[in-house]
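During the reporting period the student researcher (J.K.) took over the structure-prediction task from the postdoctoral fellow and processed the backlog of single-chain submissions. One of the processed entries is reproduced below for the supervisory committee.
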Amino acid sequence: MFLGHFAVAMAAKRVAPRPSLGTLVLAAQLADGLWPVFLLLGWERVAIEPGITAVVPLLFISYPYTHSLAALVLWGVLFGAAYYAVRRDAKGAAWLAVLVVSHWVLDVASHRPDVPLWPGGPKLGLGLWYSLPATLAVELGLYAAGVALFVSVSRARDRTGAALFWAFAVVLPVIYLASVFGPPPPSVQVLAMSGLLGWLFVAWGYWIDGHREPRTG
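J.K. obtained the following structure tokens:
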């Protein structure tokens, strides 16, 4: 899942209005933000195998510290606690923890049975990625709903706020479709390095929120 994680981050603005969009994206994408770092350090492993699913050419060999349910529960608690320590927003902290764990739920829906419950534990996966049409329908549908929910509770304070958000909303699906229909990454190192660029969307989220405000009335 890719767009789905951003979708739940944007949708969460309705139930957690105080955290910045950047913070919401960071929570929902924390697993994928840490994963390329852990790959480069050799703590987790993946192989490139074109055709292993219809959508993603990756064999996830081991990623217990970033993608297991147990690890994401721990990351979620730590993330929520850190946010609460700074903002004193209990509701926001709770939803941020939920967002961190939501990554596991969405990945189980899309992956092969390779998403662990805990390090060394059973692996789950419902295999949405085996069907390209179904994957596109679910990802794009979730994304459209997330954008709509975000817009329903947030409005631009100026032209920059509108431009930044709609550019964000368009660039993400363009990148997603390019990755789905483009060639596989040439190496794991290139995959990891490109994965680090995902942190730019966190920064973009903070930039967006600096030019937007809650809708009232």
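The committee noted the following: Residues 159-181 form the longest helix (23 residues).
J.K. will present the remaining backlog at the next meeting.
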